[in-house]
Amino acid sequence: MICKSDASSQRDEARIKTLEARIEKLERMLEQRNFWTDYEPLVLGSFKFNSQDPTFFKLPADLPQNTKEVLILTFIRCGNEGPSRSFLVKLWTEIQQTKFTKYVKGARYPQNAISFSSESIPFPVGDDRKVYVQCNDVQLHNCHHLELILVGYR
Predict the structure, then answer these.
(1) pLDDT tens digit string along 54-96?
(2) Does pTM surpass 0.85?
(3) Which of 59, 66, 90, 135 could pair covalently with 129 via S-S, beta carbons 3.0-4.6 A apart?
(4) Which CATH number fits domain 37-153: 3.40.50, 2.60.120, 3.30.1490, 2.60.40?
(5) Where are the domains positioned within the chain?
């Protein structure tokens, strides 16, 4: 016959083993979590809005070959670019002919001032190792461009 303290001790040991297993599982999950690795900010290029045709910017050769995602900082500057209107920038990467698309919206206006927008956008990366850009608006004169800056990878 098992006395109360023995049964209690066995339950405690079982609880401890269960908690230890849960802790180990959480530690493995944490180790597997992919945090961003900083990349010294590198301007991949400047999109000039001079055509509605898509263009691309190559990722640097020193980016590790096993990179699965990149973090791209977009930086749009506008102002003194009339007539007033909105525009939509389409950005994407491709993996096996599948596009992974994100959008950034901006506005042009004729005032003598400059405004800007900046955000970091994650993109999956495959063998193509390019970031594509296209815009539905052309601004040939006094355009302040869109910069794409690589800031991280995982």
Answers:
(1) 999 999 999 999 999 999 999 999 888 888 999 999 999 999 9
(2) no
(3) 59
(4) 2.60.120
(5) 1-33, 37-153
